[in-house]
Specification:
Elements: H1 6-16, H2 27-41, E1 48-52, E2 63-65, E3 70-80, E4 90-91, H3 94-100, E5 105-111, E6 114-120, E7 129-132, E8 145-148, E9 150-156, E10 166-171, E11 178-183, E12 199-207, E13 213-223, E14 226-232, E15 244-251, E16 256-258, E17 268-275, E18 282-294, E19 298-304, E20 308-309, E21 315-316, E22 325-326, H4 330-347, H5 351-371
Helix pairs in contact: 1-4, 2-4, 4-5
């Protein structure tokens, strides 16, 4: 791939507008605008990117982190990092995704200035172990007890995610820095296949208020004296904790170990938050469905909206240094020159030059797209199913 720096682009545009680049109010901003317009107008081959899907791909886990530089809904595909067969995914509206939950579908969920990718896969990894559905106070064996300021543990059959209910609890007035639940006498389960690789423990938590909540901590082991510990500071999809239901994911790697846990015979789990001592007298927190799963490493292939890289290889939307270089090859560079020259000429009142490069941009764009059709998925909407009776 050819390498073209900001300094080279600036020099080329200066030559196109009769040496008047010094008249521009802010040459860098004008050229950045031209690059942005070209990048959002055309799916350049050189701006396709591949990154690891976060987290690994799990069945029945729908929400994944979207790359910050993904262009609109510009997803090309999801591909296994192993030699598993490549699956064809269909891009659908988020409402349809949630309503139908068809296998091998993808959607985008935009809310609060955060974009998440939704994936429903039938990829044949294991469905995991349901450790405890948490629909009663004795779910999974033993009895669920309070941790720290946790209090008033009871079953809730009205607000839950899966099975028949959730485990509901309150934060009391003890003014400690933890609150949650634990069970020291669960039915023994073998968790050995879920450690040291792609295994994770998932649990849903209902958060009444995120104020003064720092993190969630999992302890899992064969007793209160022999356990692994993992701390998380965000939901499974990488977003911050929010009021309402949050899916927590505790990756079972890079753990803190206390004692000698027997992975073949776990009977102990503790789930609790770290909080400030002043976070007291709050009601209606919940946990639901503790599940162990193994994920499959996959890559997300997508169209990037970042036209630049720094000299150190950091992708960026706008150039900030003369040494930044464009993520483009020669034919793409020529199209970017067309757009930047059009904008720069218009700004310095060289109308004929601006019109010339506007026309040239359209021609070059059409030629490029004929030779390099976009691989971005088109969204397919299904409004109703019609069945013969």
């Amino acid at each position: 791939m050819a390498t073209y720096t900001y300094a080279q682009l600036k020099s080329r545009i200066n030559s196109k507008i009769k040496g008047k680049i010094g008249i521009l109010i802010d040459a860098r901003e004008t050229l950045n605008e031209g690059v942005r317009q070209a990048v959002f107008d055309i799916d350049f081959v050189s701006m396709r990117r591949r990154t690891a899907l976060t987290p690994n791909l799990f069945r029945k886990v729908f929400e994944y982190a979207a790359p910050t530089d993904i262009k609109n809904y510009g997803i090309i595909g999801i591909e296994p990092q192993t030699d598993r067969a490549l699956r064809e995914y269909i891009l659908v509206p988020s409402e349809q995704f949630y309503r139908r939950q068809d296998p091998n579908t993808i959607a985008f969920d935009d809310a609060d200035m955060v974009t998440k990718i939704l994936v429903n896969t039938d990829q044949p990894n294991d469905l995991g172990i349901m450790v405890a559905p948490l629909d009663t106070t004795t779910s999974g064996g033993g009895t669920w007890q309070a941790v720290g300021d946790g209090t008033n543990i009871r079953a809730d059959s009205d607000n839950f995610v899966r099975e028949n209910g959730s485990l509901r609890w309150d934060i009391g007035s003890g003014a400690t820095t933890t609150a949650g639940v634990k069970n020291t006498s669960l039915n023994s389960f073998d968790a050995s296949d879920y450690f040291g690789g792609n295994g994770a423990l998932f649990v849903w938590v209902w958060i009444t208020s995120t104020t003064n909540l720092t993190n969630f901590i999992l302890r899992i082991g064969s007793s209160e004296a022999n356990y692994y510990q993992k701390t998380i500071t965000a939901a499974s999809d990488g977003t911050t904790f929010k009021a309402g239901w949050n899916l927590l994911r505790f990756d079972l790697s890079s753990l803190t170990t206390t004692g000698t846990p027997d992975e073949d015979a776990f009977t102990f789990i503790s789930l609790y938050m770290t909080k400030t001592a002043g976070k007291i007298n709050e009601t209606d927190y919940r946990f639901d469905s503790i599940i162990l799963k193994r994920g499959e490493p996959n890559n997300l292939v997508y169209q990037s909206s970042y036209g630049w890289q720094s000299s150190g290889g950091t992708y960026k939307q706008d150039s900030t240094a003369d040494s930044d270089y464009l993520n483009c090859d020669s034919d793409e560079y020529n199209i970017i020159i067309d757009k930047c020259a059009e904008l720069a000429a218009d700004e310095v009142d060289e109308d004929s030059i601006s019109e010339k490069y506007a026309s040239k941009y359209k021609t070059d764009k059409r030629s490029y797209e004929l030779q390099h059709p976009s691989e971005v998925k088109s969204m397919i909407s299904t409004y109703a199913d019609f069945k013969r009776t």
